[in-house]
Design goal:
The protein has one domain: Aldolase class I (TIM Barrel, Alpha-Beta Barrel), CATH 3.20.20. Strands 5-6-7-8-9 form a 5-stranded parallel beta sheet. A 3-stranded parallel beta sheet has the order 4-1-10. Helix 3 links the parallel strand 5 and strand 6. By secondary structure, it is of the alpha/beta class. Helix 1 packs parallel to helix 2 and helix 11 packs across helix 12. The protein starts with 5 loop residues before the first strand and ends with a helix. The chain has 12 helices and 10 strands. Homotetramer; dimer of dimers. Catalyzes the condensation of (S)-aspartate-beta-semialdehyde [(S)-ASA] and pyruvate to 4-hydroxy-tetrahydrodipicolinate (HTPA). One of its GO terms (molecular function) is 4-hydroxy-tetrahydrodipicolinate synthase activity. It catalyses: L-aspartate 4-semialdehyde + pyruvate = (2S,4S)-4-hydroxy-2,3,4,5-tetrahydrodipicolinate + H2O + H(+).
């Protein structure tokens, strides 16, 4: 069994009056464990890592690890386009007790494939936890090609990938190049999670799991048991909600939905602005259809 599998929530960071709401974050972790979430992924894109201070980033990971207390694993967001900073966040996550690290491909700098390899190798060589490569060319502009991932997979602690390319041929190609049985393929897109699992994935780092953790966990459980008809039927029901989470810039949708559940405020940090009334109404209606509220 892979350490990270099933429904891994891309955890929101709750704010209140401009500050991290630590009490709400503690409640979120407990709620996810009770709801069947398989792993926690704090301080990533959905956790608004770009607008967390260094101290806040460290504290969020520390608090999540502390509350989880190894009941479910924690994959800490530790990525940066500056490898020195990425190593720093990794060391902080190690000290906090995280079980793995999520590292995004170097955005904005636009490195070539050799540069991407060198970035991840530096982080690998200077840290001790399993590293998951986050490939999201839509945000990072750069794309970790299958050949580069295969080269990275020769490093013992490059443990897997979070794939948000939307290219469902990608895992087939990568699996033809990477022969490690312990390498973990995780979808980074809720809408394509079932299709990705058919291609060899073992889980999804999910935004929708912030508000429908039981349902996303069940989708992944069906996939793990090769119950594809059931997985497809449940995924069909979730598709509207998946889409609404990204109708406006994320995580505004997830936070508004979480506020309807009484989990936290809908507060995001600029440049993410509040949702339009029409999107709020659509999210509320979709949650009612799924009997989440």
């Amino acid at each position: 069994m892979h350490t990270f599998h099933g429904s891994l929530v891309a955890l929101i960071t709750p704010f209140k009056d401009g500050k991290v709401d630590e009490q709400a974050l503690e409640r979120l972790v407990e709620w996810h464990i009770a709801q069947g979430t398989d792993a926690l992924v704090p301080a990533g894109t959905t956790g608004e890592s770009p607008t967390l201070s260094d101290q806040e980033h460290t504290r969020v990971v520390e608090l999540v690890c502390q509350v989880a207390n190894h009941r479910i694993p924690v994959m800490a967001g530790a990525g940066s386009n500056n490898p020195v900073e990425a190593v720093h966040y990794s060391h902080e996550a190690e000290k906090a007790g995280a079980d793995g690290l999520l590292h995004v491909a170097g955005y904005y700098n636009r490195p070539n494939q050799d540069g991407l390899y060198a970035h991840f190798k530096m982080v690998h060589d200077e840290t001790s936890l399993p590293i998951f490569v986050y490939n999201i060319p839509g945000r990072a502009v750069v794309n970790v090609l299958p050949q580069t991932l295969a080269k990275l997979a020769e490093l013992p602690r490059i443990a897997g990938i979070k794939d948000a390319t939307g290219d469902l041929a990608r895992p087939w190609v990568e699996r033809s190049l990477i022969k490690r049985e312990d390498f973990t393929w995780l979808s980074g897109e809720d809408a394509s999670q079932v299709s990705y699992d058919v291609a060899g994935g073992v889980g999804c780092i999910s935004v929708t799991a912030n508000i429908a953790p039981k349902l996303v966990h069940q989708v992944q459980a069906y996939c793990a048991n090769n119950q594809w008809v059931e997985a497809r039927a449940l995924q069909d029901k979730l598709m509207k909600l998946h889409g609404l989470m990204f109708k406006e810039p994320s995580p505004a949708g997830a936070k508004y939905a979480a506020s309807l559940l009484g989990l936290c405020t809908e507060e995001c940090r600029l440049p993410i602005v509040p949702l339009s009334d029409s999107t709020k109404e659509a999210i509320k209606a979709a949650m009612q259809e799924l009997e989440l509220i």
